[in-house]
Amino acid sequence: MSGYPELFAEYEKLDVDCVLLSTTGVSAQARGHAALNSYWVSFSVPAQHSATAPSGVIAPNGDWLERCPADGTPSVAVVNLDDSSEAAVESVTHARPWRRESRAGVNAEHQVTDPRRQDRTATF
Fold it and tell me: Distance between alpha carbon 65 and the CA centroid of its chain, in Å?
């Protein structure tokens, strides 16, 4: 999962509200993608992996909204995706637009020009 941050960034560009992620991976990376891109992530793992990474739904701020039991019991997490909820309002209303503007180059004139960035094989 962590090897494809550009995939999660592309979902944000497509203005998705929620990414449905089925994996056997760890949930910390899913929380990071949710917070970095300001969208919900539905994190789904097989029940036998629930002891280390229970399924659940992650808010756009990276917090868990709901988690399934960590005891191997097949279960479903159900939440309302609400842009005005405490877990989402700051991320969706402020962080997401700010990141989009920043990624579009609004701060490009303030970037530092460093020769080491252009030629990483040179010694200085």
Answer: 14
First to last CA, the chain: 36
CA distances from residue 28 to 13, 44, 46, 112 in whole angstroms, order as listed: 22, 13, 17, 32
- Buried b / exposed e across 88-114, counting CB within 10 Å, b at 16+? beebbeebbeebeeeeeeeeeeeeeee
pLDDT in tens, 26-77: 778 899 999 999 999 999 999 999 999 999 999 999 999 999 999 999 999 9
pTM over 0.85: no
pLDDT, average across residues 87-105: 87
Exposure of 106 in the CB half-sphere (CA atoms within 13 A) = 7
Strand partners, 67: 56
Query: DSSP secondary-structure letter at 4?
Result: -
Q: What sign has the CA pseudo-torsion 74, 80, 81, 84?
A: negative
